[in-house]
Design a protein that fits this description.
Blueprint lengths: L1 E9 L2 E4 L9 E2 L10 H11 L4 E6 H4 L6 H10 L4 E5 L12 E6 L19 E7 L2 E2 L15 E6 L11 H10 L4 E5 L5 H9 L4 E4 L1 H5 L4 H6 L1
Parallel strand pairs: 1-4, 1-11, 4-5, 5-6, 6-7, 7-9, 9-10, 10-11
Antiparallel strand pairs: 1-2, 2-3, 7-8
């Protein structure tokens, strides 16, 4: 099981994401890191474990309220040995730094946009976004598996930061119906028991923030997995 720490950026700060209610996200302060400065948060994650991949969500870009392009560019330069998966809303193909992999979230793509994904030649991570049981964004994107890359995040926004546990039923369904794909769990993961349950249904990667900040998932947990 590979754990990928999540960093949510809003107005220049790392914020605590909770149930997709982005207007109510506040700068993070946790047992892991008292600062909401992204450099401090990254250093705290790397102090916890030698992660080689981090996920950044630029919430301003996703919600069309500016972006953190310059900050993210500096982060990529400052941590050249870390791979960054970056979700910043609707993206078009461009020349990316070597340690940047675009995350394309369904919530930011309409039906007329989904064939834009073909230009990436599968060099991206798809995020199929849900709010409860409802799909977000282009509905056809959830069914046109020919457009999917190898790795796909199943993001259940209403479970993010909620302490509800992951959506095992939905994740299991994807794993069974598309066994050739690598599905990544996102939203609600609380502790080692959730990770073991995910592993049992075939999930090998998970996006996590709250459980790392709280200490529920620590170095010992990660090493055992």
């Amino acid at each position: 099981m590979k754990i990928i720490p999540v960093i949510d950026l809003k107005e220049g700060f790392v914020v605590h994401a909770r149930q997709g209610q982005r207007n109510h996200y506040h700068p993070i302060s946790s047992p892991l890191c008292k600062s909401s400065n992204i450099y401090k948060v990254i250093e705290a994650f790397l102090g916890l474990y030698e992660f080689d991949t981090l996920y950044i969500a630029d919430l301003n870009a996703i919600t069309l309220q500016g972006n953190h392009d310059d900050l993210i560019k500096n982060i990529l330069t400052s941590f050249p040995n870390i791979h960054f998966w970056v979700d910043k809303g609707f993206q078009r193909v461009t020349k990316y730094p070597k340690n940047y992999l675009p995350v394309l979230g369904s919530e930011c793509y309409g039906e007329k946009d989904i064939f834009e994904l073909e230009a990436f030649n599968k060099h991206f991570i798809l995020s199929l976004d849900y709010s409860k049981s409802e799909t977000l964004g282009a509905k056809n994107l959830f069914f046109k598996s020919a457009l999917w890359p190898e790795s796909i995040i199943i993001m259940t926004l209403n479970r993010v930061g909620s302490n509800q546990g992951p959506d095992l039923i939905k994740l299991k369904d994807y794993c069974e119906n598309f066994p050739q794909k690598n599905f990544i769990a996102a939203g609600g993961i609380r502790d080692v028991n959730d990770l073991l349950a995910l592993k049992q249904i075939g999930i090998q990667q998970a996006l996590i923030a709250s459980a790392l900040h709280s200490g529920e998932i620590n170095r010992e947990t990660i090493e055992k997995l």
